[in-house]
Amino acid sequence: MLGLFQKFRDGLAKTHDKLIGEIKRIVTRAPRLDAESLDELEAALISSDIGLETTMQIIEEVRKTSAETREAEVVNIARRIISETLASQPAALKMAAQAPTVVVLLGVNGTGKTTSTAKLAHQLKQDGRSVLLAACDTFRAAAIEQLKIWGQRTGCDVISGQYNSDSAAIAFDALDAAISRKCDYLLIDTAGRLHTKKNLMDEMAKLQRVLRKRLPDAPHETLLVLDASTGMNGLNQAREFHQTIGVSGLIVTKLDGTAKGGIVVAINRELKIPVKFIGVGEQVDDLQPFDAKAFSDALFS
Ligand SMILES: Nc1nc2c(ncn2[C@@H]2O[C@H](COP(=O)(O)OP(=O)(O)OP(=O)(O)O)[C@@H](O)[C@H]2O)c(=O)[nH]1
Ligand SMILES: [Mg+2]
């Protein structure tokens, strides 16, 4: 458990430092937090990307405390509200009643889809599950080789096809293989696509349809991979992907490199999409199952 907390703590260090630094600065100057410094606190919380609703809730609660106890209470209130907000969504990866569980990873270019596919495969293998990977990015040069290397490192077979071929057909073949080999999980890596490009979104919808032809309740998870450092833009991406394709959960990556980790709170609250994993580094074991309490403790410790 300590190890888990440490991972969250290290991964969120930048967000933590910015947020706590700001709160401390405001509170030290005016421990009783008068109207002016409450406004300043509000601005600091908003700039940490946790979103307007959560910010307003924290400010309201702080206002209710007596002026004498405010300084001590600010951090506790923020920690509690953020923890409660995040805990309202189920974070565990779904498991199909009957194997295989099919997981599609999607998102805009470079967010960490392929790396997260590999990290997730590694984690499932460590839990004793059998995993098959599908290389459905037939678009970007070297994308198939990249996944194959990860397949070797994690000990998972990779089903792939030709570049520029139909990714839905590869997904279908991979699902067929996963069923006949009785694999526990099929993880499908897809090409980076902009949420604003209709043809690319249609292609993703097709991939889902084709999977359903073979297995009606597939995919069991459609995980949107978001780069935390894009901040509020990530919220827009999530909204678009969710509206057009339907997203069952999020993987928020690169939290280790940004002070914008608060975005996790905003997305969770405003879109009601659970965060399932967070990426806190480039190594294969740097994907953490999301834990609301560990996250908020790390943010405010
Ligand atoms: N620091 C850090 N780097 C990460 C994390 N996740 C991914 N990366 C890095 O981000 C870069 C892009 O990762 P990929 O997995 O190739 O991203 P992708 O979404 O598959 O990219 P495309 O297929 O080109 O759209 C790589 O250098 C990864 O090592 C993370 O959690 N933390
Ligand atoms: Mg990729």
Q: Strand count, sense and closure of the main sheet?
A: 8 strands, mixed
- Residue share in helices? 40-55%
- Give the integer mean of the pLDDT values: 92
Low-confidence parts lasting 5 or more residues at pLDDT below 50? none
Rg calc: 21 Å
Question: Which shape, going by the Cα principal axes?
Answer: elongated
Taking the alpha carbons of the first and last residues, their distance comes to 16 Å
Structural class: alpha/beta
Order of helices and strands: HHHHHEHEHEHEHEHEHEEH
Give the distinct bound molecules: guanosine-5'-triphosphate, magnesium ion
Strand content: 5-15%
- What is the β-strand count? 8
Strand order of the largest sheet: 3-2-4-1-5-6-7-8
The total count of helices amounts to 12
How does this structure look, described?
Strands 3-2-4-1-5-6-7-8 form an 8-stranded mixed beta sheet, sandwiched between helices. It is an alpha/beta fold and 301 residues long. The chain is built from 12 helices and 8 strands. Helix content is 53%, strand content 14%. Strand 7 and strand 8 form a beta hairpin.
Summarize the topology:
Blueprint: H1 2-11, H2 13-29, H3 35-47, H4 52-64, H5 70-87, E1 101-106, H6 113-126, E2 131-136, H7 143-154, E3 157-159, H8 167-180, E4 185-190, H9 198-214, E5 221-227, H10 232-244, E6 249-253, H11 263-271, E7 275-279, E8 287-289, H12 292-300
The structure holds guanosine-5'-triphosphate (GTP) and magnesium ion.
How would you summarize what this structure contains?
The chain is an alpha/beta fold.
Characteristic key phrases:
single chain, 301 residues, alpha/beta, eight-stranded mixed beta sheet, 12 helices, 8 strands, elongated, binds guanosine-5'-triphosphate, binds magnesium ion
